[in-house]
Design a protein that fits this description.
With 115 residues, this protein is mainly alpha-helical. It has four helices and two strands. It comes from Eucalyptus grandis (Flooded gum).
């Protein structure tokens, strides 16, 4: 339980950093937008924590992430996010947004070690 706030704080900090970098790249900074982004991250914290816990509940090592891949695809389906599958056996590639600039990329490993 003690780890949950730190994980949520880390996600919020990363989203805040991404928003700040985008704003700096365009020569503007909108505090209200940054606050909205941070609030959005905090609202999604319980869901994100739940997904992380489900991934680590049944850890799968590299190239054997069949259940993890299915979980990721199910969550993407639930969110209505299109994706390509499979990539390198169990990989999933999803694209969110309009495709116009600015672009933020996120790459994440799906293998999980037991906690």
């Amino acid at each position: 339980m003690a780890r949950q706030p730190r994980n949520g704080a880390l996600l919020a900090a990363l989203l805040f950093l991404a928003a700040s970098l985008l704003a700096a790249a365009h020569g503007c900074y909108d505090r209200a937008y940054a606050d909205e982004l941070l609030g959005s991250a905090k609202r999604d914290q319980p869901w994100l924590t739940s997904v992380r816990r489900r991934i680590h509940e049944y850890p799968e090592l590299r190239f054997e992430e069949h259940n993890t891949s299915a979980l990721v695809r199910a969550e993407l389906d639930r969110l209505g996010i299109p994706y390509s599958y499979p990539l390198a056996g169990t990989g999933v590639v999803a694209v969110v947004g309009s495709g116009s600039r600015p672009v933020v990329a996120l790459r994440a490993d799906m293998d999980a070690l037991p906690l």
